[in-house]
Amino acid sequence: MSSAIEIQQVSKRFRLYKEKYTSLKERVIHGGKIPYEEFWALRDIELEIQPGETIGILGRNGSGKSTLLKCIAVILTPTAGHRLVRGQLAAMLELGAGFQPEMSGRDNIYLNASLLGLSRKEIERSFDEIVAFAELEDFIDNQVRFYSSGMYVRLGFAVAVNVDPDVLLVDEVLAVGDERFQQKCMQRINQFQAEGRTIVVVSHAADAMRQICNRVAVIDAGRLVTVAPPGEAIRTFRDRLIETGAADTPLPTLEDTGELVDSRQPAPPMTGSRRVEIMSCFVDRPDPDSRAHLFSGERLALTLEVSCRERMRNVAFGCSLFTDRGDLLFDSDSAILGEEHELPVGQSVVQFEFPSIPFLDGGIVINVRVQDAGGGAVHARLEPAATIKVVNPGRATGIVGVPMEVKVSSGASRLPA
Amino acid sequence: MSRVRDAATETSHLALEPGAIEWTRRDRGELPARVVAARVTVRKRLKEIWAARELLVFLVRKELKVRYKSSVLGFLWSFLNPALVLIIYYVVFKYFLHNTTPDFALFLFSGLLAWNLFNNSLLSASSVLVAHAGIVKKVAFPREVLALSQVGVSICYFFFQTCILAVFLAGFQVVPVAQYVPLMVLALVADVVLSAALAVFLSAVNVYLRDVQHFVEVLLIALFFSPPIVYPFASLHLHHLRLLYLANPLVWIVLTFQRCLYGHVVPPGQSLGGVASPLASWGQGVYLTGLGVILAGSLLLFLAAMLIFGRVEGNFAEEL
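Predict the joint structure of the above. Result:
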């Protein structure tokens, strides 16, 4: 069996006009020549997609991912190269594109489904299903202009998924409607996968991709960077983001300095009693040359340099970890661990060690502090002391990785009824 | 995670032997492949349009529904409009301008019938792609259908107008000339094909050069006077410009309509009440030859328009 979609050497050039002269007068004035810059939105893309596969196209804004999807969907003609699609194709680039506000929901279903390539008979057959899926039984004969935006996109989605496509192209439209409808959409996508249909999803939401895709293609600046299983591809994608300084978290990362305190930033607020001072904080990088992130499950070690003006007894060293959205993930200190430390006058080195960080994808913000072991009076704190990026090589999603096993055995349950 | 990946690779291994996998729905190996290259042949385009004929019908229905939506009389306007126009012509030409041609309103309206089809098609088709930018940019379908749907709408209005004309013919007690009815049908077909060819061409050009739609508006006003709609053909003194005048396909189409619908009022070559017939004094053979040439030319024009449309279509989504 041959592949569902073949993309061979596809390139697309856009002309970016400095000023757009579309009227005849302007064209004549400029001698028929319009100043423009050439811009290659896609360059020599090679991609083969197998039947039944769900493939994600990942890239940041302007990387060319939507252009590629439009080329597959035959909306744009590539400047060079060609592509092949086997079977009926349905593209969800915008839900409800072409809805006529003046017409009823019923008429719009017919028009829209027919735009997507359905025959009248096929529409009649799946009409009830479309209406039921969109949950618009009571409003189907109302004019669409009276629909709420939620009803509008629901109808759009319902029409698109009922086209019965062999190949479904989806562009960032899975997050429509309320949560319950989103779940319904995901179920439909899963059903499509189970039925062996081919799905191409375009998004910049890496985590959603991990959930549904078998493979992910990463596109950057119009070129195909990699096609790999989701974990690997998302890692590549995030590395690219960091490399080009477009990381989705504005906080300094390991890559920048290797230091916890980014020297280019204003000094982080250091508060406390000032008897102790935290001089610096470093993250031990497992592999400083090749990557800027930690993998889930790797060791995280922090080294703190503190300086003391007077000898201090009964101190504790605390550390808290936050997500980059500010949710507390973990907080503890050495006193809780049952340890008691003292600090001599002068400099000392303190080490925190986490043998295995359980976090999945995302940025982690680390705050450290030196405090009194008994009461909790804070002598010194550094916030943030460091930010790190954690990348999950697997396909599970969420914040924390939890070891999981699934066992199946035959026979009746032995649980008490 | 690895399990899913394994499943994917397994699939591609198995795929080497045809029929090795049973898909839940159907065997995808037999699906028709659609190769999309930078250039598509006109033949393929025609096939795609044929496949989208139901869409064409839906689009025409949409236009008809939306046009008079929210008005009190609604769809009735489709008939009311031509009826009122005909009444105005009748009153103006008979009582204000004292036109002596017998039943001049009938003469005028039979020419207008053919002209309106051409005029309405071009007028609305030239801006149709810009007006439907939303779907052109987001949905894949043969875009010529949009231009053709405007021709379809014009054909519908043609039939509404024909109904009104039929009522008036009955009122004036005038019968169409039976042996010219087939020729009128031929003229209608030529009118449709010519309009479609120009509609497809103009809709595509207008995406790149938005002046076209405004230019077309003015040009159509000028063109209105090229066929003998408001003046009688028989009274023209063309001399050596005759050939040039007759090179205009609209002249032939309009003349055929008039010959058929008005032919019994004052037959060509005769006069009524001292007024000579406004019709050309040709035989059926001349009409047939003329219309045949026009139809063939229009078909070629249509193919050329499709070719041009196909060349520029790939950039529509970025130009709109």
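Residues 179-194 of chain A form the longest helix (16 residues).
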